[in-house]
Design goal:
Chain lengths: ~190, ~270
């Protein structure tokens, strides 16, 4: 049975709403998946998965970085295998938008075709906070098991549409990199 | 609560469920994402092969068969356009192109002046083009996609959950869920504004939809409009209508069993 009701009183002004009802924590975060989850979903017939950290040549490190950003660090990938055949790989990356940082994973088959793009984690704060190394440092070394408690319980947010342009651009960069560095058909 | 998210429809589409096993949720979420991706492919103005671009290429007098989803959204858009006296305008793509929000389709037939609800006649899944039209389903397709994704989750056995496509969201099941709205004054602030059970919510904020001047008779210009409605498609379309008409949309909202929260630039609020 459909039902909906306001939690705010009609006498509130926008400014009063801001003061009375705003969530004091300015950070909102969600953990959706791990890169392993994405690999298992994308390669259901795989018999083995292997983490491969790819060291990037300077030209690739520059090409994989967002415009204006520092060169990309080593690329975290997971290779999916069936016997000694390589089925494809998952590439992990993150992008920083105006208010948010998005970690995402791209699953590509052995020909470099995108099978899926999934968001791993999403976190936001006031624009500046995300870019501040000290603020970001709190997430370093965290796994999905370490719940990001700050605002993690806030679901169902409506409002100014989040753009995923940065993710789309990142996916394009990864697809171009994968085309340049095709997987060997057989596992080494 | 299990959650997955993918970048679709130009935004982050989040699917969540309670009480489902990891395997069951994975299968259900895959089906939901697939449905959203299909709506995206059919109704994108950017993709030359989409139904909307096929319609934009059509000349007066042509008939074309569109996907049942496209026909359903068009039928719904026409109903909202007529119910709102044209305030809901899905034929607004030429204005969006003019403003640089949409790329000009090189292959489009120059659009006419006839309102889209009169220019296109639907019979089943067949569109009879009386006059060329460039449709933009930006104000309704996201909501439709959310409803479709909810239907897919339910069909896959998920009893309680939610689908959120960048603020067009629907919750389903027996649990009452709180919806937060981003402050139009500070995107980092969240307002817990509504409690929904088996219902939907959509918000349009300043900048994203200010395509026409608001009707001064309906009150000062809004900064953000939030609508609660039984379906996400209705909530999505109604935010555009309330944006144009303000308090004048009160009767239409009641008829649709919907409610609106308008936050105006001066900080004043209208709630129905």
């Amino acid at each position: 049975m459909t039902s909906h009701r306001w939690l705010t009183s009609p006498s509130l002004s926008g400014a009063a709403l801001l003061a009375a009802a705003a969530v004091p924590a300015s950070v909102c975060a969600a953990t959706y998946a791990t890169a392993d989850d994405v690999a298992h979903r994308a390669f259901k017939t795989a018999t083995a998965f292997g983490e491969v950290l790819v060291a990037l040549a300077p030209a690739d490190a520059a090409a994989l970085a967002a415009p204006g950003a520092a060169p990309h660090g080593p690329l975290r990938t997971i290779e999916a295998r069936q016997g000694d055949a390589v089925l494809g790989r998952v590439v992990v990356d993150s992008v920083v938008g105006k208010f948010e940082q998005i970690d995402y994973a791209v699953a590509l088959d052995s020909s470099g075709k995108v099978l899926a793009v999934e968001i791993l984690t999403y976190r936001e704060g006031h624009g500046g906070e995300v870019r501040m190394p000290s603020w970001r440092a709190q997430f370093v070394g965290k796994t999905a098991a370490d719940a990001l408690h700050v605002g993690a319980d806030i679901a169902n947010i409506s409002g100014a549409t989040l753009s995923c342009t940065h993710v789309t651009d990142g996916v394009h960069r990864i697809v171009a990199w994968a085309a340049k560095h095709p997987l060997a058909a057989k596992a080494a | 609560m299990r959650q997955r998210a993918r970048p679709l429809l130009g935004t982050l589409v989040e699917v969540s469920a309670q009480g489902a096993s990891a395997t069951a949720f994975d299968v259900a979420a895959d089906a939901a994402f697939e449905a959203v991706a299909q709506v995206h492919a059919l109704m994108s103005f950017h993709e030359a092969g989409s139904d909307l671009r096929r319609i934009a290429r059509a000349r007066a007098g042509e008939r074309l068969v569109v996907h049942p989803h496209t026909a359903a959204v068009l039928r719904s858009a026409q109903r909202w356009a007529r119910a709102s006296g044209g305030a809901f305008d899905a034929g607004c793509a030429p204005r969006a192109v003019e403003q640089g929000w949409l790329p000009a389709p090189a292959d489009g037939t120059p659009p006419g002046a006839l309102p889209f609800e009169d220019a296109l006649e639907l019979a089943g899944h067949c569109v009879h083009v009386h006059a060329p039209v460039w449709l933009d389903f930006g104000g309704i397709a996201k909501g439709y996609a959310v409803d479709l994704a909810v239907a897919r989750l339910r069909r896959a056995g998920v009893r309680t959950g939610a689908v959120n496509a960048g603020g067009d969201l629907r919750v389903f099941g027996t649990l009452e869920q709180t919806v937060h709205v981003r402050s139009p004054f500070d995107a980092a602030q969240l307002w817990p504004v509504a409690a929904l059970k088996d219902s939907a919510c959509a918000t349009s904020a300043s900048g994203a939809v200010a395509r026409r001047d608001a009707d001064p008779a309906g009150g000062p210009a809004p900064r953000s409009v939030t609508v609660l409605a039984p379906t996400a498609c209705a909530a999505d379309a109604l935010t555009k209508i309330v944006w144009q008409q303000g308090e004048l949309a009160g009767q239409l909202l009641r008829k649709a069993r919907a409610r609106a929260l308008v936050v105006r630039a001066d900080g004043s609020v209208w709630q129905s």
